[in-house]
Design brief:
8-stranded mixed sheet; alpha/beta; 35% helix; 10 helices
Length: 309
């Protein structure tokens, strides 16, 4: 485990850095309470633009809208990343996560396919995870044409997209060489200590998360809803994994618990736990966010060929 000690933030009045606290309070003041999907979607606006990428194009992957980022057209043998955005399965899309996807593609050299999966509550579980799997299959079938190695396909995502990435890896373990999970919700039970510690006053609240789970639906005990509930034999088949977590996040403990289970199952799993920051920090103007993104890009670039089915 790297990035921070596991118990950082427990027992303190405020474990956020001053810069993170300022951003957290400003973001929370402008963010609607749970209960109104339209209001939440209206508040989820793109931030500053990301870097230039040589080729960016929108297309459809078996009916699912996707955006393909290629930092070096004409290259070959590169990693191929299927990226699944966060937003509680209810909001966000290609534009809100465009800057993050650009940064990851530019820094890693990988081709990145960002998926605009269907959103709840209009399209509850399993619509989003079915779309995620469809995009993975579409991208992998076109890996060579995209200048990528079909044995170097990675599923990645932040927040609810991290859940979808974990579920996709569980559903198609032989088709992916890695999974990048950024502060993912992994258990609908929401009964960990970090929910109690950070479920209020840290932007992403327990009330929001519980409402997102309700909109998403599905059986909370099903591993394709709550990957932390997956049986050990399923975990043993998973690929190389990087879990990126914010220490002051109600989802922290379930991310740590999943990483421990993966490690016990023999999976090559690394955790990077960043102190002093809150849920959503990856795309924010914070030193920890820049470090986390650079480290994730380097990890993607180092993806070795995976198993061939």
């Amino acid at each position: 485990m790297s990035g921070a000690r596991e118990d950082a933030g427990r027992g303190r009045a405020d474990a956020l850095s001053p810069a993170a606290r300022g951003l957290c309070d400003a973001m929370a003041a402008a963010f609607p309470p749970p209960g109104d999907a339209a209001a939440l979607r209206a508040a989820a606006v793109p931030g500053p633009p990301g870097p230039e990428v040589a080729s960016v194009r929108d297309t459809r992957a078996d009916g699912v809208p996707v955006r393909v980022y290629d930092p070096a057209p004409g290259a070959a043998g590169r990693p191929l990343v299927v990226y699944l955005h966060g937003g509680g399965w209810v909001m966000c899309g290609l534009d809100t996560h465009d800057a993050t996807c650009r940064r990851l593609a530019a820094a890693s050299g990988a081709v990145l396919v960002s998926a605009d999966y269907r959103l709840a509550p209009e399209h509850p579980w399993p619509a989003a995870c079915d779309d995620a799997l469809s995009v993975l299959l579409w991208a992998r079938a076109r890996a060579a044409a995209l200048g990528c190695d079909p044995g170097r396909v990675v599923v990645a995502g932040d927040s609810s997209g991290g859940n979808l990435a974990a579920v996709t890896a569980l559903r198609a373990p032989g088709l992916v060489a890695g999974q990048l999970l950024v502060y993912p919700p992994l258990d609908a039970a929401m009964d960990s200590g970090s929910v109690t510690a950070y479920g209020r006053d840290h932007f992403h609240t327990a009330a929001h998360m519980a409402w997102y789970w309700d909109q998403y639906g599905g059986d909370p005990a099903h591993p394709h809803v709550s990957p932390l509930r997956a049986p050990d034999p399923q975990l043993a088949g998973l690929p190389r994994t990087l879990v990126v977590l914010a220490d002051c996040d109600l989802l922290r403990d379930e991310g740590l618990a999943y990483a421990r289970r993966l490690a016990r199952a023999g999976v090559d799993c690394e955790v990077r736990l960043f102190p002093g920051v809150f849920h959503g920090f990856l795309g924010l103007p914070l030193a920890a966010g820049r470090a986390a993104l650079a480290g994730a890009a380097a990890w993607l670039a180092a993806t070795p060929p995976g198993r061939q089915p």
